[in-house]
Amino acid sequence: MKTILTSANGAPVADDNNSISVGKRGPLTYDNHYLFEKLAHFNRERLPERVVHARGTGAYGSFVLSKDLSDLTLADFLQDVGKKTRVFVRFSTVGGGQDSSDYARDPRGFAVKFYTEQGNFDLVGNNTPVFFLNDPIKFPDFVHSQKKDPRTNLPNPARMFEFWASHPQSLHQSTILMSDRGIPASLRHMHGFGSHTLSFYNAEGERFWVKWHLKTNQGIQTLTDAEAAQRPAHGAQQDLVEAIDSGDFPSWAVKLQIMPDADAKHYGINPFDLTKVWPHSDYPLVEVGQLELNENVNNYFAETEQAAFAPSNLVPGIGVSPDKMLQGRLLAYQDAHRFRVGANVNNIPVNAPKCPVNHYQRDGAFAGTCPYSNGANQDERVNFYPNDQAEAGSPVPDATVMAPPMPVLEDAWIGYHDQSEEDYYSQAGDLYRLMSESQKQQLIGNIVGGLSQATESVQQRMIAQYQRADEDYGLRIKNAL
Ligand code: HEM
């Protein structure tokens, strides 16, 4: 049976090759409403691309729990060994636009949406355990400096180093970025990290600080700048789509570092500083499950492009932490989604929770499209709270999922927090000292490639930072320059 072509109102279209015109050589007429619909829709095909992480690739899969965590968290997807939770993962580069190369020297976004029975939990992380910053007020400045030059619209390494020269907090992450790990060979051959410190809380109201790690089962594979330059721009996306299509499903071991609340007060490293790791010798990794990707999207735009991840998408038993960067992100993502996709972004199937959605939010563009909410736009249900209709099924809060109060550190005060005296050097130096001779040579070469294009003042300030991390690190950069 043939499928009849229709216009958007569902009516059959008689001709999709020729517009209605006044004779053979004449102009078009005003009753070309199908032509107008087609052109008008075409004009509106784009969403604004993500301001960062614009270029991405997504796929569905599952998370299977291998360790019951009910002593630590209320989260139901972390209870009962063997429990399976559907996920959607979107990988991305950070700085480039939608059609930039998959092989930039850039962190990779690794965002996981867990569709749990208590709502969606989004782990919106990267392929690195730390970040360039520890205060969100610097994020727009940082991103501006890493993206294209405002005049030439070209990448400009001098601007990147100019930012880093004034921000020693970036040293740890920029050392990772410039190292041999800086360009993953594929999206399957890299680790993922929640990076921030999140938390768990249990039925007793106890809180634990938690860092999430996703360790690739495919092994780490990376590229040098020269190798990356040979790869086609869309190579990493193609690699992932083809691996999944052929049944070669990539997977990651999901591991946690868990810190009891009391430790946070006296641990030598600020556990809420995103520029720092917790050494595994202090807090060993505990494997809790496996994440596998096994299903490609059917439609890239509908699913991957409209996907909206938010660090504020949390479920009972999982909370945030005093990490200042995380606090900034709690606001930024939903705001971005309302701008990029719209107020009812969570009605789109890829974003919609796979559990009942009951609330008093109503209307807005595209209301009533969520397949999992109570009918279109919550149907005829009462639209204010409190109301007298709880017995008839109007939604009420559930105090049993109340998070314990966030502990306030004893020396807390309110004001601008100057972090300039933090130690941003020891962990960068530790990382440098762990590298083999060939890794050190790659690191120095990658840094000098960009730093040599910066001003002398920037070079001097960067050398001073490298030297504070490790004397040899600084000396080699100085000599290479
Ligand atoms: C204050 C700091 C930050 C701000 C203000 C910020 C802001 C944003 C914004 C506005 C987007 C686009 C969201 C969208 O349009 O859907 C985004 C995407 C993203 N960010 Fe951040 N970001 C910050 C830090 C971080 C950090 C530290 C990480 C990782 C540890 C991270 C990982 C990601 C990822 C993976 C995406 C892409 C999500 C997707 O695939 O749709 N961001 N960020």
TrEMBL record:
Residues 6-393 form the Catalase core domain. Coiled coil: none annotated. One of its GO terms (molecular function) is catalase activity. Its EC number is 1.11.1.6. It is an enzyme of class 1 (oxidoreductase). Keywords: Heme, Hydrogen peroxide, Iron, Metal-binding, Oxidoreductase, Peroxidase. Belongs to the catalase family. This is catalase. It comes from the Bacteria. PANTHER family: CATALASE. SMART domains: Catalase (SM01060). The keyword DNA damage does not apply. Pfam families: Catalase, Catalase-rel.
